[in-house]
Amino acid sequence: QVQLVESGGGLVQAGGSLRLSCTASGIISSIDVMGWYRQAPGKQRELVATIIHAGTRANSIDYADSVKGRFTISRDNAKNTVFLQMNSLKAEDTAVYYCNAHFWMGTDLWGQGTQVTVSE
Q1: Using an 8 Å Cβ cutoff, are 6 and 62 in contact?
Q2: For 40-74, how does the pLDDT look when each residue is reduced to its tens digit (9 = 90+)?
Q3: Sheet holding 71-76, edge to edge
Q4: What's the CA gap between 15 and 35, in Å, rounded?
Q5: Which residues contact 84 (CB under 8 A, 6 or more apart)?
Q6: Residue 42 neighbours by CB distance under 10 Å
Q7: CA separation for the pair 16, 8 (Å, rounded)
Q8: Burial class (CB in 10 A: 0-12, 13-18, 19+), 81
Q9: d(CA 31, CA 25)
Q10: How far is residue 120 CA from its own chain's centroid?
Q11: DSSP E strand boundaries for 3-107
Q12: Any residues with CB less than 8 A from the CB of 77 and at least 6 apart, and which?
């Protein structure tokens, strides 16, 4: 069984930076894709960035258009950790950010969520 533990959220002024971390433990070989999603108040959860975990497309990355050029997803395989570096933050980036692991069998696991608040 896989568990996801997130950290790194907080309050930052517009234009600032934050780095989120998500550490996976358990049978991580069953993970296909890892990613970050966010949900702002009153809005649906949306994809922020994903990174292919293994296979021929390992390390392939995808970003939402709204964060391209500002956010960077990366991972440390030795620590089973995925990062989301967020630069040039805007008020509209305010949301709860969730780490996601999508498994080969088609199921998903979510982290507990971490609040990111960007003040103007």
Answers
A1: no
A2: 999 999 999 999 987 788 889 999 999 999 999 99
A3: 3-7, 18-25, 81-86, 71-76
A4: 23
A5: 8, 19, 20, 22, 36, 48, 49, 71, 72, 73, 97
A6: 5
A7: 14
A8: middle
A9: 11
A10: 23
A11: 3-7, 10-13, 18-25, 31-39, 46-52, 61-63, 71-76, 81-86, 95-103
A12: none
Neighbouring-strand partners of residue 61: 51
Q: Computed from CA positions of residues 33, 113, 15, 17, in that sequence, does the dihedral angle turn out positive or negative?
A: negative
Token duo for residue 77: 């395989």
Strand partners, 21: 7, 83
Cβ atoms of 24 and 109 within 8 Å: the answer is no
Q: Name the amino acid, one letter, at 77.
A: N
pLDDT in tens, 26-42: 878 888 999 999 999 99
What is the chain's length?
A: 120
Tens-digit pLDDT profile for residues 80-119: 899 999 999 999 999 999 999 999 989 999 999 999 999 9
